[in-house]
Structures are given as C-alpha cells and as structure tokens.
Task: structure prediction
Amino acid sequence: MRLLGTITPDRPLLVVAVEEEAAHLGASLPVLLTGMGKVNAAVALATVLARGERPAEVLNLGTAGALRAGWAGTHEVARVLQHDLDTPVLRALTGRTFGAPIELDVAGGPVLATGDLFVSDPAARDRLAEQADLVDMEGYAVATVAQRAGVPFRLVKHVSDEAGAGADRAWRESVDSCAKELAAWVRDHLR
Result:
C-alpha cells in the first residue's frame, strides 16, 4: 500500500492496484496504490479511511479483462459482483447473504465480476460471461469498503485483454496504453 499525495474532502481519491496502471495519472489528485487482489485493495482503502481521511469520492481505476468478444475501451461500471465467493451456499448455511452484488448509479454500464483469480482459462472466462461483461481483481472490494464507510464511489475500467488464453501476455503488452487511456478519462471527467 502506498498513498501518493494528500487526501482532502474536496477531491476524489484515485484507487489503483499497481503502479503500471497509475503511470500517467500525474500528481494533481491523490492516488492510493493497493496491490493486486481483493484483500490488498480492501485493507489499503479501509486503512486510509479509518485514519479519518475522507475524500469527496473514491474512484477505482484499473484494467479489466473482457469476458466476451467486442468489449474494448473505458467503461464506468453499473454493477459489480464477487465471482469467487459462493453466496448461495453461504446463504443456505447461515440464512444470511454475504457478497451480494452492488449496484452503482450508472445507466447502461457493464457488469464487473471481481475475484482473486487472474482469468486466463477459457472455461473460467465462459462461466463468468454468463453473469458479467468484464472481470478484475479489486473493484468489488473497493466498492464494499467505500460503501460501508459512507463514501461515494465509482469504478472505471479499461479493457486490457480478452480474459482467457494469453491474457497475461496481453495485459503486460497493453497496460501502459491502458494507463494512458485511464489518465485521459480522469482529465476529461474530473476537471
């Protein structure tokens, strides 16, 4: 976890997993680098918010894999779900719902599936495509922490690859251009 800049109540906090995705953001807004995965993202954001540092909003920026052909570009997420928590089984065991999908106030945006699995297996991609459009490793965790802390939040993802065979190579090759696109989105939407 690394916080670059100072959090103030009049500016958003940009929450990004790794330096590669934040490479072109500049220094005008605070950036929280969380590390990859749900636990790292949740711990980093919860730690910062627990210190009493309250941004105007939390904006999770990052790359995402496309679960079906045709998805490209930068998207603001309308719904995020946790794909690697067996919510129906846990509900059957306890009578309570853990890990319910989170709806965001975005019309027509994609559904994002978050999990600690870097999806590079075509069978996993096809299974996830039945319920989502994009896949990442941090969005659900960031949304959950911000929601529970009462801080407004948004999730903005740029498609880096088609989740499936070769996704790891495609991510490495495209992450810098994705970072440029995410920085352009910030310039166009937050200034």
Q: What stands out?
A: The CA atoms of residues 9 and 56 lie 5 Å apart.
